Every structure is written in C-alpha cells, then in structure tokens.
Amino acid sequence: MLPFCHEWNSSASGRKDKEHQKTAMHTVAVLIYDSVNPFELAVATEVFGFDRPELNVPWYRFLVCACEPRPIRSSAGFLLTTPYTLEQVEEANTIIIPGSRPGVVPVPETLLASLRKCYQRGARIITLCTATFILAAAGLLDGRCVTTHWAWAAELAARYPRVQVDPKRLYTDDGQILTSAGTAAAIDLSLHVVRQDYGAEVAAAVVRRMVVPPHRDGSQAQYIQTPLLSIREQHEPFGATLEWITANLQEDITVEQMAARAAMSPRTFARRFQATIGTTPYQWLLQQRIALAQRQLETTNKTIERIAACCGFKSAATFRLHFQRLLHVSPQRYRQSFHQAK
C-alpha cells in the first residue's frame, strides 16, 4: 500500500474541501476501482487536481473516490486508499473514469448503478481509454458515437453492438458523455474539458505548465506514422511550411500554396500531412484559425467581423458557421463566457 495515500487524501484533500467552500463551483470526482490504470488516474490528477493560483481562476474541487470502502489495487499492483466513496461521486458535477484492461476484474454493479444515477441527474461523465467499456456496461452508450483505444475498438463494438465505435478519433464529446482513445489521448480530452470550462487562454497556460504538445482536436487520428517532427524536419520545407501557415492565418491559403512551399505536389503534401499530423491540411488550417479566434475573443475587444478577417475567414457569417460547428457555441456566447475584462 502506498504509505502516503491516506495521509495525502485526509490532509491535502481535506484542506481543499475547506478552501473550496467559498470558491468552488465545480466538483470533479475521479473513480478508482480494482485494476485501474495508474497513468490515466495521474492524468486526471495532474489536470484537475492541483490548484493553479497563477491562473487567477477558482480551480476544480477534486476528489478521488473509491467504488468500494477498502484499499483499491491498481493494475500496477500497488494499493490506493481514499476517504471518498460513491456517495461523493453521486454529488459531483463531473465524473472521470480511468481505464483498465477490460474483463480482468468484474465491474461492481454498485458502480454501474451509481453511474446511471449520475447520468440521470445530468452530470458530465468522462471515460479515459478503455473505461468506455464501463459506461457501455451501464447501458449509457447505446446509440452514441464513442471511441476507445484502437486495439480494443473491435472488441467494444462486438460486445456492445448498439454502441457506435469510431476507432479513428482521439476523443468524442456529445455534451454530457465524453470518451477518449488510449493513454496520451486522455491528456488531450482533459485539456479539451479545461478549454470548454475556462477558455483557450487558460487551457494554453495549463499546457505550458504541463510541458505537453499544443491542442489536438478530437477528430485527429489515433495512430499516425510520424506523430512529431524531428528537429531536422522542423527546418526542412514541410516543417517550415507549418510555421509559415500559423504565422499567416489571416491570408487566403490554399492547399496548392502549402504544397508549393513544401516543394511537393498537392497529393504528396496531403499524404505527408495526414501521416504526420493525423488530419487533412484543410481541417488543420481551420482548427488553427478557430484557436486563434478563441484567443482573440477572450483577450481583445475586436468586433466579430474584425476577428473573422484577422483569422482568415472570408466573412463573419462563414466564421460563425465554422465556430459553431466545431465548438457548439456561437462566437458571441463564447466571448460572454470567457472574455477577460481589461
């Protein structure tokens, strides 16, 4: 048993409870159960569990909750203890379920019943990696499009034929239920949630603090041939082209122009882009423009029309259409939620 677990939970978490009585608006409960993956538990803890006073926003109230009132053995063999149980889960605003190897340990019916209650009362539920199997067992994924680790996607689809499994996505978000692919995608989905709750600027600050790559959209592929550019490649035509694009988002950029700068044919460039970045040049360009627009909506008083032009959209109407489609909120509503008063 980890000797510090109970002490950390009873002192640090207890202290957080008192601090959050005045400031907390949102409680995040992460579930632990036998054979839970410690990496994904650590991801949730890193993103949601540490106070971040440098951001000047009230951070999440974070609880680690056991599905049974006893020490929980992780998939790595060590034991975890916590004073929090399913009782706290059923009061949380957001529930996070780390993954485990499906079928190794039966999932308690009490856990499944608790998740059903949480869903019925409107709680946001997030599964990391293979925890998608747990929500499927609870009957909460029928008819939904979800993802999981690509190596387990076929088995998830076979076990639960009413669930629409997309093995290509990094993560999915239908508003109340969010699912991620394997391991590192848990970081992407967690940062996506922070971006939803606090905006792009705060999420970018968390990214810098964690020293992880910038935002990856959920539609990007789980598995790509060359996920990162080497130092040498960053200075070659392809890497230099990516830098040029991000520095000139306000321009009318075509795939043909991108390919010419990279000294490739458009077809070769598109193939290289998909293999390296995990999405198409057009989709990546659109994501970069929307990310820039988010930052401008949060930190400037520019009009919607001006922001559209600065981000490379041909009209404010086109900008609003793409912004709504990707973020499920209008630019004006987004600004109302996240604009930083000057």
TrEMBL record:
Annotated SUPFAM superfamilies: Class I glutamine amidotransferase-like, Homeodomain-like
Residue ranges of the region described as Disordered: 1-20
GO molecular function: DNA-binding transcription factor activity; sequence-specific DNA binding
PROSITE patterns registered for this protein in UniProt: HTH_ARAC_FAMILY_2
UniProt keyword annotation of Disulfide bond present: no
Entry superkingdom: Bacteria
Pfam family, one: DJ-1_PfpI
Keyword terms of this UniProt record: Transcription, Transcription regulation
InterPro entries listed in its UniProt record: Class_I_gatase-like, DJ-1/PfpI, Homeodomain-like_sf, HTH_AraC, INH-QAR
Transmembrane segments: none
Residue ranges annotated for the HTH araC/xylS-type domain, each copy included: 239-337
Protein name: AraC family transcriptional regulator
Species assigned in the record: Dictyobacter aurantiacus
